[in-house]
Amino acid sequence: MTGSSRPGDFDAVRKSVIDLLKQPEYDDGSAGPVLVRLAWHSAGTYDAETDTGGSNGAGMRYESEGGDPANAGLQHARLFLEPVKRQHPWITYADLWTLAGVTAIQAMGGPEIPWFPGRTDYVDDSKLPPRGRLPDAAQGSDHIRHIFYRMGFNDREIVALSGAHNLGRCHTANSGFEGKWVNNPTRFSNQYFRLLISEEWKEKTLPDSGIVQFAAVDPITEEELMMLPTDMALIHDQEFLQWVKVYAQDKNLFFEDFAKVFSKLMELGITRDAQGKITNSDNEKGGYIS
Ligand code: HEM
Questions:
Q1: Domains present along the chain, CATH in parentheses
Q2: Cα–Cα separations (whole angstroms), residue 249 to 86, 127, 245, 252
Q3: Separation of 286 CA from ligand 1 center, angstroms?
Q4: Is 201 noted as a catalytic residue in this protein?
Q5: How far is CA 20 from CA 1, 99, 189, in A?
Q6: Which residue of 165, 182, 184, 206 sits with most ligand 1 atoms within 8 Å of its CB, as the best mutation to test the pocket?
Q7: Does ipTM surpass 0.95 in this model?
Q8: pLDDT per residue over 220-249, tens digit each?
């Protein structure tokens, strides 16, 4: 592992994150996908109307948010990052989790995502997000819109963000769903969109739990791949479908849109001055020590 760093040296933190990505004993051999999910779930609690939730504060360290069943499995991601926090103790958890997400995406072949520092680990109890703000994979397009419009995203942005399901897998122990979306789940690409429209997805009920997901056999590897009900909603809803088709055909546009929208996700609930300094009132109570 690379050495310690001076406060504010985010490139050193990025290097430490890259060093830990390879995890031969874990899942498909990489910590990358679960780090991306940690970054997304840390931010995806945002509610624009009440200006609560979001990545600032790293509230998932505490039971009320960390113990939300929607966050099951993300303890692995937080544990992977502990040595990085020990090595660079000046960085806040809120910055570390979001920086690890964007670093992992790029290291797995994805786009470079604009990322800005300065989040605090101060948690204002009155701004803690209630449980139930993250999406439920068993639902359809109305639910998806309800969740993502609440954060301030439009249909095009929702589809672009969903392209993160190129990465990683579902685990029975975490969500009840099982399997991966693409045959190379540690390489960022637009394959998820291509498979959504090219394969014939058949409903499949998991024998032990009765949970319903969708299955198809990968034409190249002959492995079984999966889609969640919410993934299928992207091809059953005509507004979503047009963007699925665009991204399936145009990888560069997908990468460009994904970079913008993931960056926006990481910034939800954060206000900055012209110099980029966070101006949220509770940020005075602790940021990184520069
Ligand atoms: C994994 C649901 C949107 C990134 C998962 C899992 C579920 C899920 C059920 C499996 C978790 C497990 O069993 O370990 C959803 C739903 C979404 C959504 C319902 C919206 C309708 C997103 C977005 C991103 C994302 C917006 C990022 C931009 C990921 C990643 C994984 C994952 C990277 C793999 C994690 C791993 O391999 O451990 N998602 N997700 N998801 N999700 Fe999503």
A1: 10-134+259-285 (1.10.520.10), 141-257 (1.10.420.10)
A2: 43, 41, 6, 9
A3: 30
A4: no
A5: 8, 14, 21
A6: 165
A7: yes
A8: 899 999 999 999 999 999 999 999 999 999
